[in-house]
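Q: What structure does this chain adopt?
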Amino acid sequence: MDAEESMINKLKQACGYEFTSKLHRMFTDIKVSDDLNNNFNDYLRQNVVELGINFNIYVLQAGAWPLNQSALSPFAIPQSLEKSVSAFETFYASKFNGRKLTWLHHLCQTELKFGFTRRNYTVVMGTYHMAILLLFESSDSLHYWELQENTKLTDEQLSRHLQSLVDHKILLTDGSAKSNESADEESNTQSSSASTASQLTPHSVDTVYSLNLNYSNKRIKFKITAVQQKEVQQVLQQEVEQTHASVDEDRKLYLQAAIVRIMKDRKVLKHNQLIEQVINQSKNRFTPSVQMIKKCIEALMEKQYLERNTSNTDEYSYIA
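A:
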């Protein structure tokens, strides 16, 4: 964590506190959560509580992290997790009276070991995946309606997570049994495609899902993710575009401020001299394009901070 803290401090020096305030809070949350987990383990030992699983928690500040609480879904916590969740809630309430915990199950990760296959596999997956697969401990085949009734997941969430389990050949549907032998070749490549697919396979409440008892994979440890719907991908793309636009706007404002500082000091400068000095002042933060600097000069002329000399159009004067 020392490298991350050093990077945040460098960003703070270069860009100011406001730019890095959320990063500082995120970094603090991680360190506090490490201490909280140690205290929780001490609490379990003192109260002679055995969870039966490795259980680690991150307690995050809602205002500092992109948590997307709109993705929360109704969810019935699996019985194997209930004891751990209840124990942590009791422990947390004893330390922080009045604070409310909101469980973000859609952001949690679990490690599940497969015991129904010829080889032992360790699979990293989301909590919803785990909840679905644990239901198959009592039966090799289940209807869609049975899975929904037991997990309480929305149709959208359950469909996406079932789809990725089928894509990885861990589960088979009514029409996919014939392809169970190809799991070892395809599962290695499904992680990337499963996370970006936008089409969900049609199903009905009576669709039957079965464990692929012949499942095999060249990897003994791998990760599966949920299918992202087209709408989710569009939202992510919009966020990327908004971030780029925000960065671009911040850079323009920085360049305009640099131009004003230079011209206030020099009063009169030729075009190429101004471009050169702006690039020199900005290079520690970013390398601006000549085109971007030109646009900033034009914007400042419109705001009447600068003007072209009438006798030499290649020269600018600062307007006091």
